[in-house]
Amino acid sequence: MIFYYTRTQKTKIAAEALHDITGLPLYALSSDIHEVKGIRFAWRAVRSIIGTKGYPVSNMPVSVPDEIYLCGPIWVGEPAGPLKYFVRNVDLSGKTVNLLLTGMQPTEENRESARKCLVKAGCQPGGIYMIATQKELPEKEIVTEHLREMLEETNA
Fold first, then answer.
1. Contacts of 114 (CB under 8 A, 6+ apart)
2. How far is 50 from 128, CA to CA, in rounded Å?
3. Phi, psi values for residue 115, rounded to 5°
4. How far apart are CA 5 and CA 145, in angstroms?
5. Mean pLDDT computed over 14-34
6. Cβ–Cβ contacts within 10 Å for residue 94, how many?
């Protein structure tokens, strides 16, 4: 199953591309941080990253399969607040969580920070994939091809 959080629709495009490749069902995570604008959003986003709890998700699943993909943006060098909330509040013990992170310029530090977040949650980190997104929405065909290449490299 593919769980994703998006605020600007960039991660939604990446999650849909992943769905096209894997055929796994999609589940959109919702958070009221969606509605916050401007400096209030920036402040809440930073607080959700600095704190350990993340930012609440309003439609948390009751359970998840043994292996999932969790997709979302990078905020201040860390997985977005709703992603942190998800991994801290869903029982992921012994489950494999693959991450797909989107952001302006993802780095290896972002990958390591995300891996640590998964380890703290007690799950088995799977692949951690990163897609660079710019200000405009990415073209789904380009994202799909990029993801296909990353997944093939992991499975080779």
1. 78, 79, 99, 101, 128
2. 21
3. -60, -45
4. 21
5. 91
6. 9
98 phi and psi, to 5 degrees?
-95, 135
- Is-contact 75 110, C-beta < 8 A? no
* Cβ count near 50 (within 10 Å): 10
| Per-residue tokens: 9 | 């629709």
Specify the pLDDT at position 155. 75
pTM attached to this predicted model = 0.88
CA–CA gap between residue 154 and residue 156 (Å, rounded):
6
pLDDT tens digit sequence for 50-81:
665 677 888 999 889 999 999 999 888 888 88
Average pLDDT over residues 116-138: 88
H or E element that contains 96: strand 96-103
Please choose, from the candidates 99, 140, 104, the residue with its C-alpha nearest in 3D space to the C-alpha of residue 121.
99
